[in-house]
Amino acid sequence: MTSASSASSAKVDNPFFARVWPIAAAHEATAVRVLRRENLIGLSGRVLEVGAGIGTNFAFYPAAVEQVIALEPEPRLAARARAAAAGAPVRVVVIGTMVEEFSGKQPFDAVVCSLVLCSVRDPDGVLHRLRLLLRPGGQLRYLEHVASPGAWGRLQRFADATFWPRLLGNCHTHRDTERSIVNAGFEVDTSRREWTLPVWVPLPVSELVLGRAHRP
After folding, report:
1. How sure is the predictor about 1, in pLDDT bands with cuts at 50, 70 and 90?
2. Nearest one of 126, 123, 111, 128 to 147, comparing CA atoms
């Protein structure tokens, strides 16, 4: 089910990424799809999804969710997300704006971040904003790239300093996202790391962190 908003900040314009991401999402590793679904298990009430992309998560929301407000500031991706929302099992409203500009009229029961905190310009500021948009006790569900140690970490730092953010929508693979989550005032309840690609695949995004945190 879908409801769309035409509001757009028009400050995010990634034409190359908007072309390649739908292809990448359509061929996403099975392990990542499994983690996406797990990230949404048990949600209910009103949910804010940040950086919805083409709406890959929408099909996985449980029936107990009353409404999803999905933010996607890249207009080409937002158009794809609205199409995906039409077939979602819950009501989804896609809004073409960044979370920094979004003003919720009432607090949310949960916030969902899936492969997005790597690409925002100010992750610390975004997480502080998300904390304010949650009700006390509300959950932050996150599935994100994670800074790896050793040789993989060196690969990530090289990718981040060269071609990766330029080609892939400002994605930075070596961010310490969980530290930013804690610094923003969240308390982490559960967290684990998962390899989603074979170890012989030399991509800096092979390792993900799946976690749940809450606003005290």
Report:
1. low
2. 123
Q: What would the two tokens of residue 154 be?
A: 């060196």
For the chain, domains (ranges, CATH) are 15-215 (3.40.50.150)
If one counts every other C-beta atom within 10 angstroms of the C-beta of residue 118, the result is 24
pTM for this model (two decimals): 0.93
- For residue 24, the one-letter residue type is A
Alpha helices in the chain (DSSP H): 15-26, 30-40, 75-85, 123-133, 150-161, 164-167, 177-183
Side-chain half-sphere CA neighbours of 42 within 13 A: 7
Reference 206, options 38, 32, 18; nearest CA is 32
**Owner of token pair 């610390």:** 124
94 beta partners? 4, 70
Angle between helices 75-85 and 15-26 (to 10 degrees): 30
Amino acid making up residue 202? P
**Residue 125 amino acid letter:** G
| pLDDT tens, position by position, 169-197 | 999 999 999 999 999 999 999 999 999 98
Which single residue is written with the structure tokens 């009501």?
91
Kind of pairing between the strands at 2-8 and 45-50: unpaired
Amino acid present at 16? F
In one-letter notation, the amino acid at residue 59 is A
The torsion angles phi and psi of 18, rounded to 5 degrees, stand at -65, -25
Q: Which residue carries 């990448």 as its tokens?
A: 24
Q: Which two tokens stand for residue 211?
A: 């976690």
